[in-house]
């Protein structure tokens, strides 16, 4: 793996795991804080509810607390106690008590004599009337008769209804005639709670539940009882049963708060199910989990985006590197190709140079060959005038001795003419051997042709070849190199003579020119045997010859062809329909010059 790839190591979803665990650990403090918060909130709520309930309960009881003492002063009640045999006065008292009961909202108001017998009661006209019943066993009776305010909570013996009893003595002077009791209904204080999840408990001094919003808990023991307490319960019968069951409250199920009501020796408790805390805590935790999942999701998405981003970078980097590699490969291939091309160019240049050199050498070889051919005729041409000059000179000396000055003069003229002819021959030889590298120039065709003819004149005469010229008098200016043109013409005439040598008389050589707008054509025709079929195909190939090795090298036409090309001209060869070869030189027309005869090449 490269350094770059290491750097780009892609994020995976498993990277979320430690992050998720770290976030999940936050749920514990969150739970702790939520529990504390909701616990404190519930405690505060319950405290307020408890205060409200206590205020309500105490308010209810206090409203009736002083009622027996006040009502005990009513004469009608005192009269009923003073004349216990008078049923009318007791009836009247019962009517009054009923009225008072209705006005005050008390449950029952009744009047007992000093023996605890009920003489008059607000419920005198009901089935469960207290009239005629004795309640001497109730503690409030004894307390009232002793001059105190009697207080008691208990179940009505006849009604089975719970109530709080306030009892106060009815006096005649300082003598207690009996006791007036107001029973307050506390059932409605339970109903205040309705269906609230919190539960109310009011326990009395014996630890027995006397009021509760939950019916099952009623008259249950909240603590162990002493024997004395049990005996008091058996005597006063405040509860519907003597066998009190303990109240079982599961540990940790309830959150409890209490308030002691010292004046009535009661304890008011409020129990709130801890589930009230659990539920919002669960909601908070749930919210936390959702938030956690959301954060995880966002983080995961961010990781994925990052991963996609890195993948894109990776891909583009890879693509770029691939491209770079391809470019490098292509560059290398191009470099190889380039160096090969350079090599080929060098080789071609070299080959071209070789070709040029070979061509040069061919030209030179052709010249040497032509020179070889010419040397016989040159030596013949030079020897013949030399012999003539010697004989004219010998004659002149003899004539001088005989004082024949006129004849001497004639001989000297002959000698002069012969030296001029020799000079011409030497000039042709020099022109032929010289290498010509000049650019084409404007040259007159006829003098060059005459030079070429002159080179072969001795041989032509020996072979008795008839020369038929069809040339204009005016110089025909062509674009050529002088030496090269002469070399070509000399070659062609030499070949024609070679061909004519193979044939008996008559031997003829035609020279004919035609002129077009931009070219001049010279046709050299002989009535020799003409080109063989193979020669027609290959005559321009170097070293192709049909002649013996002493006669020809096979370079003549090859040189002529390449020279004509170099002059931007053309060499064509064919056989004439009437027999013999026709060689056509096509040259570009040159600008008219001044002197058709170059200074060094005088015509023969
Ligand atoms: P060479 O003269 O040394 O053979 P050339 O290149 O000049 O070489 O000529 C090639 C051949 O072309 C000759 O061998 C001959 O067969 C043929 N040829 C050239 N000129 C003529 C001509 N005028 N008539 C017939 N054949 C010719």
UniProtKB/TrEMBL annotation:
Ranges for domain Histidine kinase: 377-591
Origin species: Serpens gallinarum
Membrane topology: Multi-pass membrane protein
Subcellular location: Cell membrane
Spans traversing the lipid bilayer: 284-303
Main location: membrane
Known EC number: 2.7.13.3
Entries under Gene3D superfamilies matching the protein: 1.10.287.130, Histidine kinase-like ATPase, C-terminal domain (3.30.565.10), PAS domain (3.30.450.20)
Coiled coil: 320-368
Keywords: ATP-binding, Cell membrane, Coiled coil, Kinase, Membrane, Nucleotide-binding, Phosphoprotein, Transferase, Transmembrane, Transmembrane helix, Two-component regulatory system
Name of one Pfam family that matches: HisKA
Molecular function per GO: kinase activity
InterPro entries: dCache_1 (IPR033479), HATPase_C_sf (IPR036890), HATPase_dom (IPR003594), His_kinase_dom (IPR005467), HisK_dim/P_dom (IPR003661), HisK_dim/P_sf (IPR036097), Sensor-like_sf (IPR029151), Sig_transdc_His_kin-like_C (IPR004358)
Catalytic activity reported: ATP + protein L-histidine = ADP + protein N-phospho-L-histidine
Record-given protein name: histidine kinase
Lineage start: Bacteria, Pseudomonadati, Pseudomonadota, Gammaproteobacteria, Pseudomonadales
């Amino acid at each position: 793996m490269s350094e770059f790839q290491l750097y780009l190591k892609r994020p995976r979803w498993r990277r979320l795991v430690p992050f998720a665990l770290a976030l999940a650990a936050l749920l514990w403090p969150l739970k702790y804080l939520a529990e504390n918060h909701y616990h404190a909130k519930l405690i505060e709520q319950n405290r307020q509810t408890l205060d409200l309930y206590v205020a309500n309960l105490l308010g209810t009881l206090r409203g009736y607390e002083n009622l027996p003492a006040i009502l005990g002063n009513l004469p009608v009640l005192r009269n009923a106690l003073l004349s216990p045999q008078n049923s009318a006065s007791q009836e009247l008292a019962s009517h009054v008590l009923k009225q008072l009961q209705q006005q005050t909202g008390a449950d029952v108001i009744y009047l007992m004599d000093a023996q605890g017998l009920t003489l008059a009661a607000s419920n005198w006209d009901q089935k469960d009337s207290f009239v005629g019943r004795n309640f001497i066993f109730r503690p409030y009776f004894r307390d009232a008769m002793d001059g105190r305010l009697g207080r008691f909570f208990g179940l009505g013996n006849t009604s089975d209804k719970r109530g709080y009893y306030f009892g106060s003595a009815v006096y005649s002077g300082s003598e207690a005639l009996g006791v007036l009791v107001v029973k307050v209904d506390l059932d409605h204080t339970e109903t205040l709670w309705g269906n609230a999840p919190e539960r109310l408990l009011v326990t009395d001094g014996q630890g027995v539940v006397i009021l509760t919003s939950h019916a099952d808990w009623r008259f249950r023991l909240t603590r162990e009882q002493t024997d004395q307490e049990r005996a008091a319960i058996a005597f006063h019968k405040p509860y519907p049963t003597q066998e009190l069951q303990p109240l079982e409250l599961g540990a940790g199920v309830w959150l409890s708060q209490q308030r002691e009501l010292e004046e009535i020796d009661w304890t008011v408790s409020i129990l709130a199910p801890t589930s009230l805390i659990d539920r919002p805590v669960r909601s908070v935790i749930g919210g936390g989990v959702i938030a956690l999942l959301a954060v995880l999701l966002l983080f995961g998405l961010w990781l994925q985006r990052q991963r996609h981003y890195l993948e894109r970078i990776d891909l583009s980097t890879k693509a770029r590197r691939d491209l770079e590699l391809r470019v490098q490969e292509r560059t290398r291939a191009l470099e190889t190709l380039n160096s090969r091309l350079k090599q080929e160019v060098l080789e071609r240049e070299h080959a071209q140079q070789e070709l040029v050199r070979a061509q040069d050498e061919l030209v030179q070889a052709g010249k040497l060959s032509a020179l070889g051919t010419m040397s016989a005729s040159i030596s013949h041409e030079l020897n013949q005038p030399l012999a003539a000059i010697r004989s004219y000179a010998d004659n002149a000396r003899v004539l001088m001795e005989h004082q024949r000055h006129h004849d001497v003069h004639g001989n000297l003229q002959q000698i002069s003419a012969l030296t001029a002819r020799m000079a011409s021959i030497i000039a042709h030889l020099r022109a032929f051997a010289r290498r010509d590298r000049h650019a084409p120039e404007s040259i007159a065709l006829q003098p060059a042709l005459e030079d070429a003819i002159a080179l072969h004149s001795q041989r032509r005469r020996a072979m008795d070849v008839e020369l038929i010229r069809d040339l204009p008098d005016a110089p025909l200016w062509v674009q050529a190199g002088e030496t090269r043109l002469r070399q070509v013409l000399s070659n062609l005439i030499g070949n024609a003579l070679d061909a004519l040598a193979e044939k008996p008389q008559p031997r003829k050589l035609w020279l004919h020119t035609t002129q077009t707008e931009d070219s001049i054509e010279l046709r050299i025709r002989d009535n020799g045997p003409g080109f063989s079929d193979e020669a027609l195909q290959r005559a321009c190939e170097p070293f192709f010859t049909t002649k013996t090795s002493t006669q020809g090298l096979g370079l003549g036409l090859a040189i002529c062809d390449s020279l004509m090309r170099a002059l931007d001209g053309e060499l064509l060869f064919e056989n004439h329909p009437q027999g013999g070869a026709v060689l056509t030189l096509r040259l570009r027309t040159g600008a008219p010059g001044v002197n058709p005869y170059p200074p060094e090449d005088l015509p023969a």
